[in-house]
Amino acid sequence: MPLASTPGTPRKKAAAAGPRRGPGGAAQPVRPRPAPQPLDRLQSLIVDSLAGDKAEAIVALDLAGRASFADRMIIATGFADRQINTMATHLEERLHDAGVRRVQIEGAAGADWVLIDAGDIIVHLFKPEARAMYALEKMWGAELDEAERSEADMG
């Protein structure tokens, strides 16, 4: 005869069971989640703004320790000059509202590539053809690190 299961979600069951016990029977303290770092909040704001303007294929790359000009890079695709300009304008407004005062935009006058310098985060907005041609994901992505490591192992 199978045992009857206890009703409730796993979270409720864990709460009913009481605090976790470590070695020796002492209750383990509950560890609070770390607060999001300012750079993470800024990245979320940028990605949310681009997604709200229907950007495609949004990619965030971590450049910390690999580049001196920024800690993160965000790449996104837009399909028309007007869409890319709108993404850049809205992003500049949201960054300004968030307290980022020195936002520089290059290429907003009808180019295939718009660069937005938000300090520690650089944002690239491309038309699909330009994004494929420049291939920044390949240049700065994790695949490059893996190739460099394998070359160092061989050499």
Note the topology.
Layout: H1 10-17, H2 38-52, E1 56-62, E2 72-77, H3 81-97, E3 104-106, E4 113-117, E5 121-126, H4 128-134, H5 136-140, H6 142-154
Helix pairs in contact: 2-3
Provide a compact summary of the structure:
With about 160 residues, the chain is an alpha+beta fold.
Structure description:
A 5-stranded mixed beta sheet has the order 1-2-5-4-3. It is elongated. The protein has one domain (38-154): Beta Polymerase, domain 2 (2-Layer Sandwich), CATH 3.30.460.10. Helix 2 (38-52) packs antiparallel against helix 3. It is an alpha+beta fold and 155 residues long. The protein has helices at 10-17, 38-52, 81-97, 128-134, 136-140, 142-154, and strands at residues 56-62, 72-77, 104-106, 113-117, 121-126. The N and C termini lie far apart (64 Å). The chain is built from 6 helices and 5 strands; from the N terminus they run ααββαβββααα. The model is unreliable at 144-152 (pLDDT under 50). It is 42% helix and 17% strand. Strand 3 (104-106) and strand 4 (113-117) form a beta hairpin.
Note the main attributes of this structure.
155 residues; five-stranded mixed sheet; Beta Polymerase, domain 2; alpha+beta; 5 strands
Quickly count the domains: 1
In the CATH hierarchy, the architecture is: 2-Layer Sandwich
**How many angstroms does the end-to-end distance come to?**
64 Å
Helix content: 40-55%
**Structure classification:** alpha+beta
Secondary-structure element order, as H and E? Answer: HHEEHEEEHHH
Q: What is the CATH homology-level superfamily?
A: Beta Polymerase, domain 2
Mean pLDDT: 79
CATH class: Alpha Beta
Shape: elongated
- The name CATH uses for the topology is Beta Polymerase, domain 2
Neighbour order of strands in the largest sheet: 1-2-5-4-3
**Structure annotation, total helices:** 6
Sheet-strand content, in percent, reads 15-25%
- Major pleated sheet: 5 strands, mixed
| Rg on CA atoms, Å | 23 Å
Secondary structure: number of strands? 5
Low-confidence stretches: 144-152
